[in-house]
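User: I'm new to structure prediction. If I give you an amino acid sequence, what do you actually give back? Let's try with this one:
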Amino acid sequence: MTSLDHGKFSRVTTVFHSLLALTVFLLFFTGYAVAFNAELWWLVELMGGNSGVLAVHRIAGFALIFLTAFWVFYMLLRMGGSVGLMAVLPTPDDVAAFVQDLKFAAGMVDERHPSARQFAGYSADEIPLLSYVGKGVIAIFTVELILLMISGLLIWQKTWLIDFYNSQSVVVAFVGFHGLLGVIMMMGVMFHTFEHGFHPAFYPVEMKAFLPKSDTPDFHGEAPSDAESATGIERLQLKPSWAWVTNVMGILTVIGIVSMLVASMEYGGYPISETLVFGEGSLLRTVGVNIGILVLFIGLFLSMYGNVLRARYMRQRTQEDRRGAAATDGGMETDD
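Assistant: Good question. You get back a string of structure tokens that encode the predicted 3D arrangement of the chain. For your 336 residues, that looks like this:
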């Protein structure tokens, strides 16, 4: 582990990230099991049939509302902190970084803007807590989650819509809007899983999403004297399995995203049928949709695996601290 992989966030942020991921994955599994029941019949049966799927979906939906409300209050209470609301708002430096990145991609400048450097070997003080890309991801996810929660509540209580608009077509429109947001967010989550789980510096898990900064040292071993090597990027080594695993995961991610989009459109509307009655799925569509679910399961597994590694790391740190304290007090170190 290098300082590139050290936690940048607080303990509350890392726990919130894991709980949010679990909730969102449950919503994906249950929502797509309902939408693509012909292709994902096994997932419907696994969760206890139609009534079980809908029950889990609604429970996960209310959990999402609770987590979102908690996070809003938490961010407001930490207005002056490193993870407060101001830390995720765009700044003039973010705009400049975006413009310079476009120029860098076009070969018009020689380097990226300092506010966009995340993995380029710079010292920790030179790397922003969140680049403009990270802030953009937070903004997009926030808007999508809010709209998904509102539309989901209105679909659940259809009488609210019918009584207000006196039209069943409004309910169908909200169902379609809810499905469209789900498809868009699904693409973002798949890409997010691929980007952060299979980056060569972090493969197979980006631990800074799970380890709070307060629980990780600045360096492992002796700190380098050269500030430019403070991230430890020069000591990174690619794992032998990284290349083929990343290629396979990239292919699965593309197939999963395309299949979900195509399946949504082939059902007679985007992203949901006008009649809300789905036909039988074809073999190719069934394979593609299940590949998409497989990618989501991999994302859930990586989230759980990150927490397992965090627990293992913290247990090792506790054992080392106890041994160090015993040695300082004049005791004898013993092997457990």
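You can read the tokens as a compact description of the fold. Here is one thing that stands out. The first helix runs from residue 11 to 35.
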